[in-house]
Write a structure and sequence with these properties.
Arc Repressor Mutant, subunit A; cadmium; HTH_ArsR_DNA-bd_dom; lead ion binding; DNA binding; HTH-type transcriptional regulator CmtR
Length: 111
């Protein structure tokens, strides 16, 4: 059972990051390999501005870091264990029926 505020805060930050499909795609892409923002935007098919906003959120949550590489920045997961956690979560959701969606929070109070 989690009792420490720091544990709860860490899980809440991870949950906020995963609450957005684009941030999920970013995290999964970075799980595969560190990437420069321009390449990541192209890979995900989103604008650099939109990507920048999502990367800022992920940095603020402590899930990704920007590593200087010459005059460019390369993004990567802040900790390799996050990649394992993402894999564990992906494997856990296979129990969810494909035709089911999570109800909106205001409907049933979940998610």
């Amino acid at each position: 059972m989690l009792t420490l505020a720091t544990d709860i805060d860490a899980l809440a930050r991870f949950g906020r990051a995963l609450a957005d499909p684009i941030r999920c795609r970013i995290l999964l892409a970075l799980r595969d390999k560190p990437t420069h923002p321009a390449d990541l935007a192209d890979q995900l098919g989103i604008t650099r501005t939109r990507l920048s906003n999502h990367l800022a959120c992920l940095r603020d949550c402590g899930l990704v870091v920007a590593v200087p590489q010459g005059r460019r920045l390369r993004y990567e997961l802040a900790d390799a264990r996050l990649g394992h956690a993402l894999d564990d979560l992906r494997n856990a959701v296979v129990a969810v029926e494909a035709d089911r969606t999570c109800p909106e929070a205001d409907e049933k109070g979940c998610c």
